[in-house]
Amino acid sequence: GSGSVLERLGRARVVPVVVVDDAEQGLGVAEALEGGGLPVAEVTFRTSGARDAIEAITADHPGMLVGAGTVVNPRQVDEAVAAGASFLVSPGLSESVVRAAREAGVPILPGVATASDIMAALELGVTTVKLFPAGVVGGPGAIKALSAPFGQVTFVPTGGVTAANLPDYLALSSVLAVGGSWMVDKELVVAGDFAEITRRTAQAVAIATG
Ligand code: 3PG
C-alpha cells in the first residue's frame, strides 16, 4: 500500500486486535481478515506466540499492514520491529517505549485515558493516540470533550468498540480509526471458525465505508 502507516490506518478505519497463540493461528486470522476486506492486524504481545505470528503474517501476506499491540516495554518494541511490525500500539504512555519506537523508526500509538496523559504524549511529540479503554472512559462523548482543548490530537479509540457503536466513533472528525477485538474473538480463533471472523470483518468494513 501507499502512504504513511498512519495514513493507511486512517484509510482502513478499523484496526482488528488479534490474540493468537502461534504462527498457524496468526496465518488463519490474517487470511480471514483479508477475506473480509481488511488487510490490517494488530497482533498483541499477550502471548508468547505473538512474535512468530507477526513474522509469519508479514512473510506470507506482504500487502497486509501488520502491527504489534500490548507493547509495554522497550524490549518488546525491538522484538516487534524485528519480527516485521510496521506500527506499535501500547495500552498506556511510557516515555521509554515511545523513544524506543522512535529510534526504531516505527510509529507508535500510546494509550491515553486522561487529559494529563494527552499532555504527556504531546510533550513527546505524539499527536495520534489510542484512547483506552474507550468505552469505560466515556466513549464518543469523552473524545468530543478531549478534542476541545486538544484539537491537534487524533484518536484511535479501543476497548469496548463493537459493530453497534462503531458508527458513533467514526462519525467524529478526530477519530483516525478504531481498534477492537470483536471481529477476531479468541473463541472463534480457538474453534477455527475463520468464516465467522471474515463475516464480522466484512460487516465492519461495510459500516466503516458506509
Ligand atoms: C486492546 O488491547 O486494545 C483491547 O483488548 C481491545 O479491546 P476490546 O477487546 O474491548 O475490543
UniProtKB/TrEMBL annotation:
<keyword id="KW-0456">Lyase</keyword>
<keyword id="KW-0119">Carbohydrate metabolism</keyword>
<keyword id="KW-0704">Schiff base</keyword>
<comment type="similarity">
    <text>Belongs to the KHG/KDPG aldolase family.</text>
</comment>
<comment type="subunit">
    <text>Homotrimer.</text>
</comment>
<protein>
    <recommendedName>
        <fullName>2-dehydro-3-deoxy-phosphogluconate aldolase</fullName>
        <ecNumber>4.1.2.14</ecNumber>
    </recommendedName>
</protein>
<comment type="pathway">
    <text>Carbohydrate acid metabolism; 2-dehydro-3-deoxy-D-gluconate degradation; D-glyceraldehyde 3-phosphate and pyruvate from 2-dehydro-3-deoxy-D-gluconate: step 2/2.</text>
</comment>
<dbReference type="GO" id="GO:0008700">
    <property type="term" value="F:(R,S)-4-hydroxy-2-oxoglutarate aldolase activity"/>
</dbReference>
<dbReference type="GO" id="GO:0008675">
    <property type="term" value="F:2-dehydro-3-deoxy-phosphogluconate aldolase activity"/>
</dbReference>
